[in-house]
Write a structure and sequence with these properties.
By secondary structure, the chain is an alpha+beta fold. The chain has three domains: 205 residues, Phosphoenolpyruvate Carboxykinase, domain 1, CATH 3.40.449; 268 residues, Phosphoenolpyruvate Carboxykinase, domain 3, CATH 3.90.228; 79 residues, Phosphoenolpyruvate Carboxykinase, domain 2, CATH 2.170.8. Helix content is 28%, strand content 21%. Helix 2 packs antiparallel against helix 5, helix 11 runs antiparallel to helix 12 and helix 11 packs across helix 17. The longest helix has 17 residues.
Length: 595
């Protein structure tokens, strides 16, 4: 196949990889609907995919049992020094890692086709967008990239002869000898899986896995781990954040970016349906935000992705009706139940299932033995299909961010909402965001699972330097910096009952944030931050007693003090690299607690 580009660097790179990996064929993806349909037909014919008769243009895949999620212990940040990677990342010296992986790549695409996928993260031509090119031997990756990014000929046109791109090399690591029969889901053993990032070269190498963020290299690998490094270098932000637009009854728009660890309701908030009359929500993005300071001095954000790659189990018309409507058609499902009626199903979907075939390919009946869908089963769907997608979600200039939100999953201690006292305090709040390690771990002596800005698995460099970058961005933004809040939807009463109903009622929390942003309410200052004063928070129509509200918002200074040893241990791991401003925030926090 003749290469549809004259970009010299790209042509040379594809030629080098072809010689190393020795595929039988080379194919340049054009991003067309005909290409997508052709690949799907081929995978159905080979037994890799199942066409779902109940969902138009939708397909199901089953992965190998060893290849079902991101593999954090096989994910590496190969910066020049271990200290640059920091204590939260797996580090291997770049040349050592390259030597190991070159040995694995040698001949790894024998019997397969090498696909070249030119893709744009963000609308092509946006000043915030970046171009990547992924080489892969997986047609599953190709069709998912079609949905998750902007793929094909238009990207090559934008790249031109001398344009820069981020090279992303991927192989499932399963070469085929002549005459050897392929398997439905080729991959390498776990000990040969590598997801490697070379931040000094803006380079990504992945080997051995065909699943999710291990293989769709535009997602966590480029959009966060490599982009976070580029963003620091160039003076912008690449964050693990949803973006939403909230509109008041008066028609005023507020744009909110929020960072939550897994299992904290991130996608549900991105597609919120507020219960309070007159307030509406539109989704700009559900996972990643790239933000640059615009000509007006405000922070402007784009969703660099074109689709949703969501966790299926637990998604239902109760928890997220907008997501359910999004995946009615033109979607890819992985590791779900395929019903006897030709549809998909998963646990907590909220609809009955008489049985079918489970994610392992075995006959399955609900209520008898193991769950039918894998806990990390996924859907891939075009963002444009979301019923509440924001009309400006593809605005090349991005949307202006008014509010940042951080959060974690805490059944005790942390109240429903509080506001940072200033930007530096907000950075401290995001840096110390934490969840309880298990639902039963209620002892204050138990270690909290800290997830700074929900970036723990995704920051491509030393987290201490990342925090300094946040401080630096605050200095640049000055008075135009977004306000910062912290939320906890998961507080329980002493007898173990949820205190906050969540879901659409979370719009009440966002309303108070907007009113604080406008100065319509003043809040009250507490040792942990600013909280709603009496009568400020809209509880109209909510069946909640004063005692329940007081418990939900209670600040137990003793409980916060009990976590200071854990906080000190957490900060100590960063040593001399910990920013002086973070040390000052820790000291101020202790002083406010009366420690």
């Amino acid at each position: 196949m003749t290469a549809p580009t004259q970009n010299r660097k790209l042509l040379a790179w594809v030629d080098d990889v072809t010689r190393l990996c020795t595929p039988d064929h080379v194919y340049w993806c054009d991003g067309s609907t005909a290409e997508y349909a052709r690949f799907m037909d081929q995978m159905v014919a080979s037994g890799m995919a199942t066409k779902l008769s109940k969902r138009p243009n939708s397909y199901h895949f089953r992965s190998h049992a060893s290849d079902v999620a991101r593999v954090e212990d096989r994910t590496y940040i190969a910066s020049r020094t271990k200290d640059e990677a920091g204590p939260t990342n797996n580090w291997v010296a770049p040349e050592d890692l390259k030597q190991t992986m070159r040995g694995l790549y040698a001949g790894c695409m024998q019997g397969r086709t090498l696909y070249v996928i030119p893709f744009s993260m963000g609308v092509i031509g946006s000043p915030i967008a970046k171009i990547g090119v992924q080489i892969t031997d997986s047609p599953y990756v190709v069709v998912n990239q079609h949905i998750m990014t902007r793929v094909g000929t238009r990207v090559l046109q934008a790249l031109g002869q001398d344009g820069a791109f981020i090279p992303c090399l991927h192989s499932v690591g399963a070469p085929l000898k002549p005459g050897e029969q392929d398997v439905a889901w080729p991959c390498a053993p776990i000990e040969k899986k590598y997801i490697a990032h070379f931040p000094d070269e803006s380079l990504i190498w992945s080997y051995g896995s065909g699943y999710g963020g291990n293989a769709l290299l535009g997602k966590k690998c480029l959009a966060l781990r490599i982009a976070s490094v580029i963003a620091r270098r160039e003076g912008w932000m690449a964050e693990h954040m949803l973006i939403l637009r909230l509109t008041s009854p008066a028609g005023k728009r507020y744009h909110i970016a929020a960072a939550f660890p897994s299992a904290c309701g991130k996608t549900n908030l991105a597609m919120l349906r507020p219960t309070i009359p007159g307030w509406t929500c539109e989704c700009v993005g559900d996972d990643i935000a790239w933000m640059k300071i615009g000509p007006d001095g405000r922070l402007r954000a784009i969703n660099p992705e074109a689709g949703f790659f969501g966790v299926a189990p637990g998604t239902s018309y109760k928890s997220n009706p907008m997501a359910m409507d999004t995946i009615r058609e033109n979607s890819i499902f992985t590791n779900c139940v395929v019903t006897g009626q030709g549809d998909i199903w998963w646990e907590d979907m909220g609809v009955p299932c008489e049985g079918g075939t489970d994610w392992k390919g075995n006959p399955w009946t609900p209520g008898k033995g193991e769950k039918g869908a894998h806990p990390n089963a996924r859907f891939t769907a075009p963002a444009r299909q979301c019923p509440v997608i924001c009309p400006d979600w593809e605005d090349p200039a991005g949307v202006p961010i008014d509010i940042f939100i951080f959060g974690g999953r805490r059944t005790q201690v942390m109240p429903l909402v509080h506001e940072a006292l200033d930007w530096d305090h907000g950075v401290f709040m995001g840096a110390t965001a934490a969840s309880e390690p298990t639902a039963a771990a209620l002892d204050v002596k138990a270690k909290l699972r800290r997830d700074p800005m929900a970036m723990l698995p995704f920051c491509g460099y030393n987290v201490a330097d990342y925090w300094q970058h946040w401080f630096d961005m605050g200095d640049k933004l000055g008075a135009k910096a977004p306000k910062i809040f912290y939320v906890n939807w998961f507080r329980k009463s002493p007898d173990g009952k949820w205190l906050w109903p969540g879901f659409g009622e979370n719009g009440r929390v966002l309303k108070w944030m907007c009113e604080r942003t406008d100065g319509k309410v003043q809040g009250q200052t507490t040792p942990i931050g600013r909280m709603p004063a009496d009568g400020e928070f809209d509880l109209t129509g909510l069946p909640m007693s004063k005692a329940e509200w007081d418990e939900l918002m209670r600040v137990d200074l003793g409980a916060f003090k009990a976590e200071l040893t854990d906080l000190d241990d957490y900060m100590a791991q960063f040593g001399s690299r910990l920013p002086a401003r973070m040390r000052a925030q820790v000291a101020s926090y202790k002083q406010r607690l009366g420690d």
